[in-house]
Design a protein that fits this description.
Blueprint lengths: L3 E11 L6 E8 L8 E4 H9 L3 E5 L5 E8 L6 E5 L30
Parallel strand pairs: 1-4
Antiparallel strand pairs: 1-2, 2-3, 4-5, 5-6
The structure holds zinc ion.
Length: 111
């Protein structure tokens, strides 16, 4: 069975040199779990190597896939909403969590 993970918030960082902001970490929520889980992007990429999938969910319940891509600017792998799913929902409009690992109450962490 494929594990699917719903991303509920993101952490971004500026690259050095500060040419663009990238997603550095995400928080996922298991509906059955009490707490959210923080994943660095490296951990997300490792999970994708194990065929785990990530998505975000729009208020209407539709799901947008998250994909990995190699950035043209820095040649690093980042994650983003699948280019075919950005009309459904987009990672960039999720709440931004603070950088330090801690419990997330989304909607209060918008920066
Ligand atoms: Zn980049």
């Amino acid at each position: 069975m494929t594990t699917v993970n719903r991303i509920v918030s993101t952490e971004t960082r500026r690259t050095r040199p500060a040419t663009h902001a990238v997603i550095a970490a995400v928080w996922t929520r298991d509906e059955a779990a009490v707490t959210d889980r923080r994943w660095t992007v490296a951990t997300v990429l490792q999970a994708m190597n194990r065929a785990e999938r990530f998505y975000t969910q729009a208020p209407n319940g539709r799901q947008a896939r998250v994909q990995r891509y190699t950035c043209a600017e820095c040649r690093q792998e980042h994650i983003r909403t699948h280019v075919s799913d950005t009309a459904i929902h987009d990672l960039t409009i999720l709440p931004h969590a603070a950088g330090a690992p801690r419990a997330v109450v989304d909607s209060t962490l918008r920066v």
